[in-house]
């Protein structure tokens, strides 16, 4: 059971961490919103499509925001607790720093379980749904360009579409395309008619394709018809593609749930990715959740401040620490996925280093009297600078003395 002090810290930390999660998600989504608006610009229902895209992207940004919010929220809570002299009063009353860290450990455990669910299920499914929705919206956007009963010009082509037919088909179709010489002067035109057309988007290049069926085309150049008219049963206006539904989920390891990755840890469940890539992704997800249990033991020492003046050093160093840690984990995952090292070694070696660092910095803060770690570090840096200035001054004095002789 938590005492009153721990409940007090728990409430303050929950508010800070919750607010930071919301703020971080909003900031991270701003960058993606521009691309979403571009995608849905020609959609028949842009508001609904944009909302669904944002909904499917939220798990991805939550996975990025939760560790940052836990670290910064803990640092801010402890820093305010220190500056108000509440920390000094609690320590004077015999409450240990380890006891005051319990609320943050509880929050870290809760967020670790939440992260396992977010990164293990919500992120893979959300990523696939987002990609599927983008594919559908792009097809709808191209369809919207061929509105019923209107002429639409795209480049050198002018399209005219009749009524909407069954499914994604429209028809009849009329296409007028001007032909030019090397100098850009128009020398003729090509006309194509078809009873029916279907609009799709190539997944690899994102190029729109209009597939025609039961049509006829002929070309005029220099006021002369070339090769008569040509009838066709099927033709593509902008390339070849098949009318198929969006691919099944599982194109890469990021679209697979943790349960599916665990089933495929021996490489026998799926053949779409290598065993090393599969296991490196699985270890990364478990390792990121485990790190949330260690963050409180790093954030609390970073937030200690025995003075009354606010300090942003803990926040700055905490952000640099998390970014560096994320890059180290990605590097370890890359080495494991490429089979250069065992998949588990690339992730858990980094976590082992972080565990040792967390244990050392917390032990030094909780069980050894002295300045907080960051204050001690700042004092040590100042001492090194002083020694460097002294050494430089001595070198200058010796140089001046030699020159005088």
What does this protein structure show overall?
The structure is a single chain. With 405 residues, the protein is of the alpha+beta class. It has two domains: 4-139 and 251-388, no CATH class; 169-236. The protein is 61% helix and 17% strand. The protein contains nine helices and six strands. The chain has helices at residues 4-39, 46-83, 86-92, 97-145, 258-263, 275-303, 313-337, 343-366, 373-404, and strands spanning 151-154, 157-164, 169-180, 186-201, 208-221, 224-236. Strands 1-2-3-4-5-6 form a six-stranded antiparallel beta sheet. A hairpin with a 5-residue loop joins β3 (169-180) and β4 (186-201). α6 runs parallel beside α8. The longest helix has 49 residues, at 97-145. It is elongated. The termini are far apart.
pLDDT averaged residue by residue: 80
* Rg measurement, Å: 32 Å
Shape call? elongated
Order of helices and strands: HHHHEEEEEEHHHHH
The amount of helix comes to 55-70%
Quick one: how many beta strands?
A: 6
Separate helix tally: 9
What's the structural domain tally? 2
- Structural class, please? alpha+beta
Largest sheet: 6 strands, antiparallel
The quaternary organization reads as single chain
Determine the N-to-C terminus distance.
78 Å
Q: How are the strands of the biggest sheet laid out side by side?
A: 1-2-3-4-5-6
Indicate the proportion of strand residues: 15-25%
Sequence stretches where pLDDT stays below 50 over 5 or more residues: 239-244
